[in-house]
Amino acid sequence: MTNTLHVPTPQEITEPALAGKTETMVLNMGPHHPSTHGVLRLVVELDGEVVVNVAPDVGYLHTGIEKTMESKTYQKAVVLTDRMDYLAPLSNNLCYALAVEKLLGVEIPERVQVIRVLLVELQRIASHLVWLGTHALDLAAMSVFLYAFREREQILDIFELVSGARMMTSYIRVGGLAYDVPAEFLPTVDALLRIMPERIDEYESLLTGNPLWLERTVGVGVIDAESAIAYGLTGANLRATGVPYDVRKAMPYSGYETYDFEIPVGKNGDNYDRYRVRMAEMRQSVKIARQAWERLSALGPGPYTTLDRKVAPPPKSEITHSMEALIHHFKLWTEGFKPPRGDAYVSIESPRGILGCYVVSDGSPKPWRVHFRAPSFINLQALAHMARGRLVADLVALIASLDPVLGEVDR
After folding, report:
1. What's the distance, CA 135 to chain centroid?
2. Per the confidence metrics, is the pTM higher than 0.90?
3. Domain 65-308+336-410: which topology?
4. Phi, psi of 53 (to 5 degrees)
5. Cis amide bond preceding 252, omega within 30
6. What is the distance between the alpha carbons of residues 226 and 33, in angstroms, rounded to a whole number?
7. Statement: residue 332 has pLDDT above 80
């Protein structure tokens, strides 16, 4: 088991080759190869076209986000979370906000929680659509890419509607939301949710039974449940092996325990099962989003942030009549809030798996330390295990099936 689960380093592959100790060929794939889904370098050892070994070499997109957050107030640091997994910024916002809210011990209004759930499920669909389109494109299926991005545009329009930005929204803030949702939010979301089930059927009609797609995905990149757990795989990559683990069910947050949805699982742990699981996840996200839409419609207008004065400024009417309220508002605006000394960890189910956020407070307005458990980084560990003995063309399909985002890998 130890040998099987070994994660090779680039040096372990390149040094024997440079010393002339092997008869295999060593190639660099990336860091700018279009099929590495970001700035990822793979050191690949080949025997002809068969992969003998492969080592992911990360760090080419390192941005120092975690360190930079130490120089920002808690609220201002939210904008940095968008830039990690840039295909799921709202999920990053939520994970960080939940961790800081846990430090502060603030209560979040039900309406805010419902809006958050609705938006992160739309974000999950949008992220999976990028995965689907690019995965298909890597395997020469052009049409699916165009179809998937058609619906993703609609979702990005919704994000722009609520925040003014299509991708880096910074919309979920510590204590609530940046702004209230506009009047046209509910009908716009309703229009999307009505068409999504048949659009997912459309994608599946192009791929699920396609002989060429089956040939490139069935039995490719197989990993068993025991190895997947040992490597730390989470999300669809783990569930494709038959393990029904989802943070939304195991450790519910934002009221997920009150929503009716299922955890799709596979059984073979290959590229095809990872595809089928993500397709089923999009259907479940539509189901959750519809329930959240109905709840939000029933709740009507209400607060979009917590009423706890540790985080939220007093209302304008109070500020104009009270010097104390005015001073409190000014301090929150200039200095930010100060959580008590301590630490907090929160994990959520992002589109790529378990995204965790660990925050340490020293009692000042700025975090002493922020660290993220990035699923993309951990999922990459299994690449060598899945690729050995496969053709180099399968390596392209494998990277796509893991769905890594390099902004999250390097941080």
Report:
1. 16
2. yes
3. Cytochrome-c3 Hydrogenase; chain B (1.10.645)
4. -160, 155
5. no
6. 31
7. no
